[in-house]
Amino acid sequence: MTTQKEDHDIAKEAYLVDPLARDPPYTAGSRFKVGPDDVEYLVYDSHHDPVSGFQGMAVVPVVAGKPDFSHVTIAFAGTNPEHRADILADTMSVVGGDTGPGTQASEAMEFARRVRESVKKEHPEASYSTVGHSLGGWQAMLVAAEFGWAGVSFNGPDPWDSLSPRAKEWLQRQRDAGRNPMVNYVNEWDLIGNLSGNGTGAAKYVGGPRGKGPFGHHDLETAYEFNADGSLKRLGVEGRSDWEISQNQVAGLPAGLQPQFTPIIAGLYGRLRLPLVGEVVGTIASGATVLVDTVAALDLASSIGSLGISLEAIKAANAGLPGQLQSVLDAGRSTVSMIPFVTPADVEECISTHRLNPHQRIDLDAVAEVDRRVDTHTLVVAQLSEGVVKAVVHTLEQDGQWASRFSPLR
Asked: Measuring CA to CA, which residue among 296, 286, 295 is closest to residue 91?
């Protein structure tokens, strides 16, 4: 029985089948260690398709120095944002429901079949399970349901709508019997993992702090924390609504813009679940990234806009300098006044001689110049942030083909 941390780490290691992620990439015979106890695994088989972007590997634990084929784990890598093929795969499979030939979904099925047929020649007793993150998590659940295996996903969109009738019947029988062979650990704030609902019933929500940006709640490195025994922290929270998730995504924007963009994100998010919209998005690569690009752009605007807050803090600090120095000086006067042989005249003479008055210690012209430059930079920052926001609005308004499918649906 693997721990949640081991499953998490195996899903993470699956990305290293990609030669762009590791040189040399994982291939048959590669070894790695996972989990709090550094459990060693051997890569039995791997597959990388540079055209579709698919990456997967089959691994077995190493026990007493020998590969243990009593159980085989098949791991699928998720979306690499730098791979256009991966973005298209996300769109075609997860949103559009396309699992036909040439898709990563079909490659995942074929790879799993290949591994099973190869292993059973020498190890017919072997059992199997799947694991993956993001798109890889979606594939892990899809393959598990189709083959009748157990599956573990991290922030994977739910594959229920893409399952075959036979797989749905099998999974429903399992659930009716009080067991679900699949689990999908979804960060409560994640856009991607929450995208497709929970038709399989596999979702178990994981709590975490808000405000990590568009991908901070999704990535394996930042979306989860573990206890010393390898169990997930904050597992078992309630899932969030589309509106709550959308509010979290725009939390970094200036307060005045948040009400404007929360419904935009929530609207895009909800519409992607509708069959008609999914059909359109699944065939248009540009429409595939509307949601992610919108959130990423707003996060950029938020990051730029937050610089304005820092700049204003500089001005506020400058404005407070005379008052702070005066307070220190007054405190000194009060302290010295308690010395009986020191007169007020002596104190003022000392202050004058050593130029301790605020107007003598602060170069007001220099402060004014700093304030002027801060004002200039604040204006530029505001213009940049506003420009990004306007670009988002313009893109959403001008994407006629996308909007035409959107607007009639209420």
From this structure: 286
Query: Tokens 């995942």 sit at which residue?
Result: 108
Q: Which domain holds residue 102?
A: 4-240
Q: Does the model's pTM come out above 0.70? A: no
How many angstroms separate the first and last alpha carbons of the chain? 46
pLDDT in tens, 198-254: 999 999 999 999 988 767 898 999 999 999 999 999 999 999 998 888 888 777 655
Q: Which residues contact 164 (CB under 8 A, 6 or more apart)?
A: 146
Residues in the chain: 410
Q: E strands along 97-139, which residues? A: 127-133
DSSP-derived pairing of the beta strands 203-206 and 182-187: parallel
Whether 77 and 164 share a structural domain: yes
Q: Are 10 and 131 in contact (CB under 8 A)?
A: yes
Q: Are residue 203 and residue 177 in the same domain, yes or no?
A: yes
Amino acid, single-letter form, for residue 383: Q
Tally of domains within the chain: 2
Q: Write out the two tokens for 33.
A: 């260690």
* Distance (Å, whole) CA 208 – CA 188: 7
Asked whether residue 71 carries a pLDDT value surpassing 80, the answer given is yes
DSSP 168-199: HHHHHHHHHTT--SEEEEEETT-TTTTTTTTT
d(CA 41, CA 61): 4
Alpha carbons 156 and 133: distance in angstroms, whole number: 6
Instruction: Tell whether 400 and 299 lie within a shared domain.
Output: yes
Closest CA to 67 of 45, 46, 48: 45
Answer yes or no: do 92 and 147 share one domain: yes
Over its C-alpha atoms, the chain yields an Rg (Å, rounded) of 29
